[in-house]
Amino acid sequence: MLVCNPYEIVIHGTTGNGKVFRPSDWAERLCGILSSFDKGNRLSYHEWVRPILVDKVRCVAVDKKLEEINPPMFRFLMDFAADNDLRVMDCKTLIDEQAQEEAGAVQERVSLSQAIQEKQAAEQQAAAVEAAPVESVLREIGADDTAVAFAALSILRSGITDVARFVEQVNTQQRPQGYRLFGIFEEGKANAVAVCGFREQTNLAGGRHIHIDDIVTIPHGRSKGYAARLLAEVRRIAAEEGIDKIQVWSDVGSERTPAHRLYFENGFEIDAFHFSCKING
C-alpha cells in the first residue's frame, strides 16, 4: 500500500510514454543528494526527500515544505523530473489513481476489435511523437552554470550525489586544470541532456592532446546522436587549436559495449592498456 501524505509531491519512476526509468537505483541516488549518516554510520534520508515504491516502481516523495526551505534544491528536483520526462503528481492524485485501478473502475466495455484499434492508434501516435525531431542546442557550460551538468554526470559517475560539492569540485579544482564542459540542451529543459567534459594535456607519453574525462547522455535522450555531436565538437576544437590527438579511457565489460561502439564509430581506436593500482590505507 502506498504510504505518503497530502503534503508530498511524487516523482514517479515512469516516463511520459510509460517506460520505467533507468538506472534502477535512480531514486536512491536522487535522494542521496540530501542524505546524511547517523551516529551508527547508517545512511539516513532527509525528512523531506525520500525514496518510495509504488506498485514495484521506484519513486521519490518530496515534501512541499522543501520549496520554501530550500528553493534551489526543490527546483533542481523538479527540473530533474522534467528533463527526464518523469511523471510528477501530488500524493492524493496518485492514491486516487491507484484506487481506481484496484477497484477496476471501468465506465464501459469496449469490443475486442475496438480495443485493438485504440491500442494501435496509441502506439502509432507515441511512435510519431518519439520520432518527431526535438530542437536542441550545443553550447559550452560556464563556471556560473556548472550545476546544469549534474543530472547527466550523476548517472555516469554514481559517486556524485551532492550538487553543491559537484559544482565546487569542478569550478575550484578541475576548471583551473583546463577542464571544460559542453552540453546539449533540448528546448524547454533547464539541465543538459548530454554532457562532455574534457581538458587539454601535454605529457611525454602522448605529447599535446585532448583527454575526454566524461561523456554521457541521460536515458531519454539516447539514440538521438547527441554523444556523436559532442565528440564532433571536441574534434573541431582540437583542429582549431592545432591538436592532432584525442584520448579517452573507457572501462571494460559488457555494460560498456554501447560506449565502445560510440568511440569506434567516431574514429577512435584501441591503442594501449590502462593499468591502475589502488593504495590501501
TrEMBL record:
Domain N-acetyltransferase: 136-281
Pfam families: Acetyltransf_1, DUF3579
Keyword Ribonucleoprotein on entry: no
Coiled-coil residues: none
Gene Ontology terms, MF aspect: acyltransferase activity, transferring groups other than amino-acyl groups
CDD domains: NAT_SF (cd04301)
Keywords of the record: Transferase
UniProt cross-references to Gene3D superfamilies, sorted A to Z: 3.40.630.30, Uncharacterised protein PF12112 family, DUF3579
Keyword Nucleus listed: no
Protein name: GNAT family N-acetyltransferase
Organism: Neisseria dentiae
